[in-house]
Amino acid sequence: ALAAGTAKAVLDYVVPYVNERKAFGEPVSHRQAVAFSVADIAIELEGLRLVALRAAARAEQGKPYAREVALARKLAADKGMQIGSAGVQLLGGHGFVKEHPVERWYRDLRAIGVMEGAVLL
């Protein structure tokens, strides 16, 4: 749930940024690669959210839920890092500046991956 919430914050911050940021006289969101990257963030975020909700629903119903929790943890680690990285990339040079919260969210999402053991080298 932590990864899904942080990833949602990344998406909510990135969408207005790419719509307002201009390059070559038009918003960068008009570039196909940027639009696809934002769409990928939204898709992966929804997957994270649904898997976490499924695990919670099974636990609440008293059904076995270990498999769903393991899947949610794995997805949170893998997709969380991807979403954080994509958010930083979409902001370009601003993605690594502390004035933008995306760099902090990227570190938080990456920490979830480190805790899970999915470190990228």
Automatic annotation (TrEMBL):
One of its GO terms (molecular function) is acyl-CoA dehydrogenase activity. Keywords: Flavoprotein. SUPFAM superfamilies: Acyl-CoA dehydrogenase C-terminal domain-like (SSF47203). Residues 2-118 form the Acyl-CoA dehydrogenase/oxidase C-terminal domain. The keyword Flavoprotein applies. Pfam families: Acyl-CoA_dh_1. This is Butyryl-CoA dehydrogenase. It comes from Amycolatopsis alba DSM 44262.
